[in-house]
Amino acid sequence: MESLWEWYAYTKKQTESDPSWGRIWPTALSLARFTLQSLHFDKDSDASTIDIDFTSKLNEQECALVKQAIKALQTTSHIIELGCGLGLAGLAFAVSAATGSTNIKRTVTFLDREPYALHCVMASAAINNLAIAPISSEQEMVGGTTTPLIVARSSIDDWTSTDKNISYEDLQLGALDYENEQTLILASDILYEPSSIDSLATKLRNLLHPNDGGYILITDPEKERTTGCRSALVESVQEMGGEVVILPIPQPKNNGIAMNKSVLVESDVDIDGNLAKTVLIVVHFNGA
Question: For residue 275, what are the β-bridge partners?
Answer without folding.
Answer: 269
